[in-house]
Design brief:
Helix content is about 60%, strand content about 10%. The chain is of the alpha/beta class. The protein has one domain. Strands 1-2-3-4-6-5 form a 6-stranded mixed beta sheet. The longest helix is centred in the last third of the chain and has 89 residues. It starts with a helix and ends with a helix.
Length: about 350
């Protein structure tokens, strides 16, 4: 059987025929595979056979490869490049908010760095699910987590809380398909935010953000047909599934070769990968439905606003018409009064003329 380029480089990758044979030999696996849409069946066979690369931003793959509990050096290297300073991941924090338990704040990967700062790395397949408002809520949650920890430590030592001990918090968002506003800057694939004053006064307000529209990065790097630095290599690893690019990364960066090898070892467990893949598709469907609901609600809100403006216009026009009717009525009344006055004057003239004719 002819093997493709990735199979030659990563011999653990099985051929499409071998994968199909295993699927057909296991009733439960075959049932799950047949339940997929044709395009999803094709994608599953493609990444398991090496015809295309695995979509690293699928939640299960991303967390398996970047999980700091397994290997903190990977995330440390990526964050150091992205934050433009050397950082080391020292611990992983709970994903669910303990500060605001009634909210739906559930983050992807949250870590504490060596200097005490806290970072969350969010992976968003579709940008509509992660607007700026949501990023601000995540950032606020990180800051409150740190405050609670510092406060509890101070209380345990019978000390007062020192706000100067608080370290920055970083919210990092990787978009596979970024929101429309990012596409107004087609030459930029990293956007860093921090609070600044309108006078130039510097204050450490702690909350910083990094947004990475990977779809824009992908267009830029594929047009240039080369990877220029380590950060671009990481971003290419996250978003490019073309086998030729995977080989470039594997040959140029031993770290990525190791990570790809892990991924393709995972793909040998078809039942496990099928379960992961099905979960991804369910989440995608759920997000798509929510997006459609949000879009419909936004359309309804816009229509309501437009109808409200029309109603105001109609009321204003009705008011103007009413005012015009009143003016016309007043003018008609005045004209009638003038007609009555003229008729009365004419009667008086006739009476006077009659009087003059009878008394020459």
């Amino acid at each position: 059987m002819k093997r493709n380029h990735l199979q030659q480089y990563f011999p653990m990758i099985r051929t499409r025929d071998e994968i199909s044979q295993e699927i057909n030999s296991k009733p439960a696996l075959k049932r799950n595979f047949n339940a997929l849409k044709p395009e999803h069946q094709q994608e599953f066979l493609d990444f398991c056979s090496g015809a295309k690369g695995v979509r690293i931003l699928y939640d299960s793959f991303f967390k398996a490869i970047m999980d700091p509990n397994r290997d903190p050096t990977r995330l440390s290297k990526f964050l150091s490049l992205l934050l433009k300073r050397e950082v080391t991941v020292v611990s992983v924090l709970s994903k669910e908010s303990q500060i605001m338990p009634d909210t739906l704040i559930v983050m992807d990967i949250i870590v504490r760095l060596e200097d005490g700062s806290i970072t969350t790395v969010e992976v968003q397949r579709y940008g509509y699910a992660f607007p700026g408002q949501r990023a601000a809520c995540y950032s606020a949650d990180l800051l409150l987590r740190q405050y609670k920890q510092k406060h509890d430590q101070a209380a345990a030592n019978d000390q007062r809380m020192n706000y100067r001990s608080l370290r920055p918090v970083y919210t990092i968002v990787l978009y596979e398909s970024s929101p429309a506003e990012f596409h107004r800057f087609p030459g930029n694939y990293i956007h860093r935010f921090r609070q600044t004053s309108d006078t130039g006064l510097e204050m450490n307000l702690l909350e910083e953000y990094v947004f990475v529209p990977l779809d824009i990065f992908k267009k830029i790097v594929q047009n240039k047909k080369k990877i220029r630095n380590d950060l671009e290599a990481w971003l290419a690893f996250f978003c490019i599934d073309d086998p030729e690019w995977i080989l470039k990364l594997s040959e140029g960066y031993p770290l990525f070769q190791e990570m790809y090898r892990e991924i393709y070892e995972m793909c040998r467990d078809l039942e496990g990968v099928m379960q992961m893949y099905s979960k991804e598709l369910q989440e995608l469907d759920s997000n798509t439905v929510q997006y459609m609901i949000d879009q419909m609600q936004e359309t309804i809100n816009q229509k309501d606003a437009q109808l409200g403006e029309k109603d105001k216009e109609l009321k204003a026009q009705a008011s103007q018409i009413s005012q015009k009717d009143k003016e016309i009525a007043d003018q008609t009344f005045q004209l009638n009064q003038k007609d009555d006055l003229i008729a009365e004057l004419q009667n008086q003239i006739q009476e006077m003329q009659k009087h003059l004719s009878e008394n020459p």
